[in-house]
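Lab manual, section 2.4: Encoding a predicted structure.

Procedure: take the sequence of the chain (379 residues), apply the prediction step described in section 2.3, and record the output as structure tokens. A sample record is shown.
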Amino acid sequence: MKKLLVLLITAAGVCVSCEEERSRDCDIIAFAVDGTAWTIDGTTIAHTYPSGTAATPLTPVITVSEGATVSPASGTAQPLFSAAGVDYVVTAADGITTKTYTAKASIAGNPGDGRQVSRLTQVGNPNALDEFDRHDRVYDFEYDAQNRLTSLKSPLHDGDEDAEVRFVYADDRVTVTGISQSEDAPMICDDNGNCEGGESYVGTTTIEAQLNAGGYIASGVITTVWDGDHPNTSNTMTATYNADGYLTGLALGEGLSNVEHLALAWTDGNLTRVQEESSSGSYSYSVAQYTASPNKANLDLNWFVYSDPNINLREYTLFALAGLCGRRSQNMVAQTTEHFGSNSGTYVYTYTFDSDGYVTQWTKSGRSSTPTVYKVEYR
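Recorded output:
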């Protein structure tokens, strides 16, 4: 009987010892797609594909430390070409210790992996044709550790709106929230007693967007809640892409009415035409020409250049700027022309670059307006 008791105690001790000695190793040892090994540098995993590669989901085979697990699992398709890449969490055999890796695929010659834009300044031109260009505007940008845009701030200037836009990323979704406010505008009355102005509003716009398998915006709901008696609004949006990952269609609608359709065309890797048609029957289109200079910065600066004429995508401009609207234009835009009925207007853009080929300044001129200057600062 004593011998049996000793054996039981010994066996129990062995089991406890095994539990305590479970490995804390939680490394990704190898990461490969279609037999090609990717580079692992610390907790960053990367691979560059040849120019012209379609930005479609990839299925990696992942080898981890003995007894460890990884999520997302090895052998599952993931949007590795997305702007943020994909986070992989490795859990050691002890079930407690973890390590997070970020894997991201890029395409040779594809822009968007360059230096971070920290500030963009519009130098106001009081003689500009468009009201938007008449005021100084400063845009400040913040990013997370994965180079994802998290905040865009625009301070208040000369009665324009003071706004901050925040991006929050979670799995296959991204939420964009903007807080906007307008200063009290003086009430202006004509000789007949017709008055305008004198109102101030604060509003919160929230865009809840679903990402597709490529990591790009697929659909979403845009909701704006204003204070006071200003009516709230709610819109939907749906995006489509071609096989190469370029945005080709966008539908924006307010409920079931006033649906707006945008069709986008690309030539040699650049967005060259946007056609707009609403359910009311209005129709317009914009065309763009490009320089030979690459679009190198981490943000797609063309979406600031595009601000007028109407080659922009309104709320989608925010997502395009952040690289969430598919592949971006390869080059910096040289000219945009908007056509609406028999009318048209053209802007021409000229650039100044630093020694590394990054845009430091551009000038917008055209439409019988004196030029407006924009300046770019980098981290």
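Check your result against the sample. The chain has two domains: 22-107, 117-378.
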